[in-house]
Amino acid sequence: MTLTRRALLSTAMTLALFSATQVQADSADGDALNKMTWDQVVELAKGGTVNWFMWGGADNINQYVSDYVGGILKDEYGITLNRVGLTDTVEAVNIVLGEKESGVMDKGSVDMIWINGENYRTMKQGGLAYCGYTGLLPNNALINWDNPAIANDFGVPVDGCEVPWSKAQFAFAHDSAKTPNPPKSIPELIGWIKANPGQFTYPAPPDFNGAVFVRHVFYHVAGGSQNLLGEFDQARYDEVATKTWALLNELEPFLWREGQTYPNSIAQMNELFANAEVALNFNYEPSQFGLAVQAGTYPETTRSYGLADGTIGNTNYTIIPFNSPNKAAALVLQNVLLSGEAQYEKARPEVWGTSAAIEISRTSPEIQAQFASIVTPVSVVSAEELGKNALPELQAGWISAIEQGWIANVAQK
Amino acid sequence: MGPDPFAMRAFRILTGVLLIVWLVLPLVPLAIWSFARGWRFPDLLPQEWSLKAWSYALSDTSGVVDSLGLTIGISLGVTVLSILVGVPAGRALGLYQFRGKQAVELMILAPTIVPGIAVALGIHSVFIALGLTNTIPGVMLVHLVPTLPYMVLVMAGIFANFDPSYEAQARSLGAGPVQTFWYITLPAILPGIIVGGMFAFLVSWSQYILTLLIGGGRVVTLPLLLFNFAASGRNDITGAIGMIYILPGLLILLVTARHLSGQNGAVGGFGRL
Amino acid sequence: MSDRMRIMLLLAPAMLIIVVLFFGGLAAGLMRSFNYMPVIGLTRPNLEAYAAVFTSREFYLSFLLTFHIAFTSTVISSVLAIGAALLLRRSFIGKSVINFLFQLNLTVPHIVGAIGILYLFSQSGSFARLGYHWGLIAKPGDFPALVFDPYAIGIILQYVWKEIPFIGVIVLANMQAIGQDYESVARSLGASRWQAFRHVLLPLIFPGVLSASVMVFAFTFGAYEIPALLGQNYPAALPVLAYRKYTDVDLAARPEAMAMAIVIAVLSAVMIYLYLRMSRRKIRG
Fold first, then answer.
1. Which chain B residues contact residue A3 at CB under 8 A?
2. Tens-digit pLDDT profile for residues A156-189
3. Does B251 map to a domain?
């Protein structure tokens, strides 16, 4: 079909499609699903569609999802996976929110979101998530729910409202040819910034990566994360925040552009690092450094590392909105994502290189052997290495306060 | 006026050359990036060339080809709708004087003065209730808001120079309304329809914030895709998509170019504000 | 059928769309900005959102920046467009090329131009690399900050790049419609080139330039994607700020975003009204 014919046809069919969705077996009723067996769920899902909204800024992830995962869904279940790329996960949360406000209760446009942290808290507190179904998934057995880092999403209990997908841990990167001795702890970094003006910056919160960097400084000022765990404490926050903002403001003149502006996003910062406008980079997903070297964006001499005083790690999840009309298909998708094969595929460095969220020891011996055979590229610090010094995330109350605090006290001064 | 003195001629040519370079310049790095495998400071040209960006852009995964078809379809649909709605309105404004005409003109032209984002945020909640968000028809409807004023403006200019007595003559000679329109009116107003249609197409073609808000990220037109890749730093793919994105506009231009050089009052219609 | 009936029928479809979508959209936004949304039970309108907007330092800084962008871009593009149109009036080598490129530029969407400007003028962009090769700078940080900068230079460059052809094509069409007779008469009466231009041609093309520049001002004031790509983080352009507030996870920010949008709409209308009043006076005087 020619492009224009296809486009014109799709325009005409959209209206038809509106009514056609009624014909397809509607799996919007979550309660009914919870009472079925897995085979019944699969049967209901066959031949359907699932609309998965996820951050679309990395084409390797896009390819893994659309080609590999989409292929499995299509071949084994006849389900069509529609990956919807977002610039920011909050866009999907806003869609569900807007739909709930306007009374759209079972014909939502979002079937699944790749999510964690504040966005997860918004969905849980707003009653926007479909919960209580995780026992249905066969691969749920592979998840270690006893691990508090998995059972809690940034301190908020999961309570069966979402299912883990990947683990991430923050790491730094440098060009070993230009900067052979990068600072390896926050105090060292502070000294290094003052000694090397214009060579460092960080994306402005609420950018995800910029915000977590600020939290590292916050932990340092607080004397360690153990002093901040638990519910948000206004008094404790004020005490630490005042000193943190003072520190960051003190550093401003030594930053890139003398701190007059900060990169809008991690992507801009990647650009700066690629062109040696700044000497250090960082990311929640260190595998990104390896992929960038592969694509020729970063020099071959790029290396990454963790910090001696530890870096923050988290788990990220997939969640199904309360008003998804394709819950059965979404469940099948989640089950596929949790499978040993899919988790191994995305752990491969040339695909994505991200850590598994399931217990590898609970998978089959063949899968375990495959995991053991993975070789991390030289530019990427291994997850094990990073894992030796993992710091927990704080509860979402702290996160938003720190974000707002930075915007009010550092950006606006 | 007499012929140019030499100094004036040289100045014209120099300015002309600078202008040509300036007009083409921003497109050059985009084109180069689309063939680059990494291109870091301070290299003037990429150290390594590659077709990976193009192969990804033209592949199924990236969705670029689908998006191209979708965007063309939407813009064509919006153009047709604008013509159907704008020609009669232009006729009314160009041929007749009536009480309240200034108010009507102001209302129709208001969207060119009020920024789209102001309207889009408001329309968004209405469209959610109507179930028009995240749909192609919804996006097309909202595109009509910025395109209609241009269409009406151009057609009003054309009709202002149109003599309706020809139509009356044809009718008096026995021609039916359809015949009159087809043989008398249409040829006279066709340049305006072409210019207005071109503006309508281009306005719809380059819409970003309206499509983003109303389409909810589900209706992925090329500008959205391009913005996403540009914002995430994949310059090579951005370059490829950018090149693809300017192609249809270029084609339309080649087809309609001669109508843009003012002698027919169509473009002059913009002086009517 | 009476003339009045005919006129109303002809105008009906267009008016329907404009009234329902455009004015309806503005009205809906206005209601939301007053926190009035019966659908979800908010039935007590209030001015909290507006209070929040007008007491926010960020808002005023954003407004000043956006005004500066719109004003500077419009002035520079208009002046240079008139110059370019004067250039293109006469035949000379390369005229058809420039004509073609002008019209080509009209078809290139703003986003593409913005990305191009980014690749050319960033501190590690093409001009910076040229500077490095000519020994003018040693590292990207030495190159002047033209994008993500407080004066929005990159943004203005992009608007100028796109609007010179836009205004130029309109002015050129007007010039060709007017013809060269008036100026010839003036020259034959002893006026210099400049005088013929300033006192004969300029007043004649002024209405066209005015309406084109009004459209340019409105567009550059309210556009989102160009400052989103090329602008600095704080203060951001007004449309970027409004969109940021609208998509904020904190729902309380929504009415604020709507209020900001309404303020943008009102400010645009007022500024353009003043602009037209002052210029119409100039035309008559």
1. 65, 68-69, 72
2. 889 999 999 999 899 999 999 999 999 999 999 9
3. yes
Calculate how close chain C gets to A407, using CA atoms only, in Å: 9
Q: Is the pLDDT of residue A376 over 90?
A: no
Nearest C-alpha of chain C: how many angstroms from B60?
Answer: 23
When mean pLDDT is compared across A327-336, A363-372, C214-223, C246-255, the lowest value belongs to C246-255
CATH code where residue B170 lies: 1.10.3720.10
Are B216 and A267 within 8 A, CB to CB? no
Residues of chain B found within 8 Å of residue A85, distances taken between Cβ atoms: 217, 220, 228
- Confirm whether B198 is domain-assigned: yes
Distance from CA of C262 to the nearest CA of A (A): 20
Mutate to test the interface with C, among A86, A94, A125, A128 (most CBs of C within 10 A): A94
| pLDDT above 60: residue C284 | no
Determine the structural domain holding residue B179 and report its residue range: 62-272
What rounded mean pLDDT belongs to chain A?
87
Q: Do A10 and B73 lie within an 8 Å CB cutoff?
A: yes
Query: Least CB-CB distance to B37: which of A104, A267, A296?
Result: A296
Residues of B in contact with C95 (CB under 8 A): 16
pLDDT of residue A8: 45
Does some domain include residue A280? yes
Q: What is the mean pLDDT of residues C230-238?
A: 91
A402 and A291 belong to one structural domain: yes
B25 is a domain residue? no
Question: Is B1 in Cβ contact with C187 (below 8 Å)?
Answer: yes
Q: Name residues 85-114 of chain A within 8 A of B (Cβ).
A: 85-87, 91-92, 95, 98-99, 101-104, 109
| Domains of chain C, earliest start first | 1-46 (no CATH), 47-284 (1.10.3720.10)
Residue at B100 is within a domain: yes
pTM of the model: 0.83
**Domain shared by A117 and A210, yes or no:** no
pLDDT confidence of C61, banded at 50, 70, 90?
very high
Helices marked H in chain C: 3-17, 24-33, 48-54, 57-89, 95-107, 110-121, 126-133, 153-178, 181-188, 193-196, 202-222, 225-230, 238-246, 253-284
Query: Which candidate in A4, A96, A102 is best for mutational testing of the B interface (most B CBs within 10 A)?
Result: A102
Q: Which domain holds residue A235?
A: 171-305+387-411
Cross-chain residue pair A10–B218, CB shorter than 8 Å: no
> For the segment A90-139, what is each residue's pLDDT rounded down to a tens digit?
889 988 988 888 788 888 889 999 998 889 988 998 899 999 999 999 99
Number of separate domains in chain A: 2
Q: What is the pLDDT of residue C85?
A: 87
- For chain A, report the end-to-end CA distance as a whole number of angstroms: 57
> Are the Cβ atoms of C119 and B252 closer than 8 angstroms?
no
C253 three-state secondary structure: helix
The reply to whether A10 falls in a domain is: no
B36 chain-A contacts, CB cut-off 8 A: 296
Would you place residue A190 in the very low, low, confident or very high pLDDT band (cuts 50, 70, 90)?
A: very high
Residue at A382 is within a domain = no
Do residues A155 and A184 both lie within one domain? no
C243 neighbourhood in chain B, CB within 8 Å = 117, 209
Of A4, A276, A296, the CB nearest to B48: A296
Question: Are A277 and A137 members of one domain?
Answer: no
Q: What's the pLDDT score for residue A213?
A: 96
Same domain (yes/no): A256, A281: yes
pLDDT at residue B3, as a whole number: 62
Task: Please tell me if residue C126 touches chain A, with a CB cutoff of 8 Å.
Answer: no
* Residues in chain B with pLDDT values less than 50: 1, 262-265, 268, 271-273
| ipTM over cut 0.95 | no
In this prediction, residue A211 carries a pLDDT of 93
